[in-house]
Amino acid sequence: MPTARPKAKKAAKAKAAPKKKAAAKSVAKPANTIKIATFNINNVNRRLPNLLAWLKSAKPDVVCLQELKAEHPNFPEQALADAGYGAVWRGQKTWNGVAILAKGHTPVMTRDALPGDTADSQSRYIEAAVAGILVACIYLPNGNPQPGPKFDYKLAWFERLIKHAGKLRATGHPVVLAGDYNVVPTDFDIYPTKSWDDDALLQPESRAAFARLLKQGWTDAIRTRHPDQPMYTFWDYKRNRWPRNAGLRLDHFLLSENLAEGLLEAGVDTAVRGREGASDHAPAWIVLKRA
Question: Is position 254 within any domain?
Answer without folding.
Answer: yes
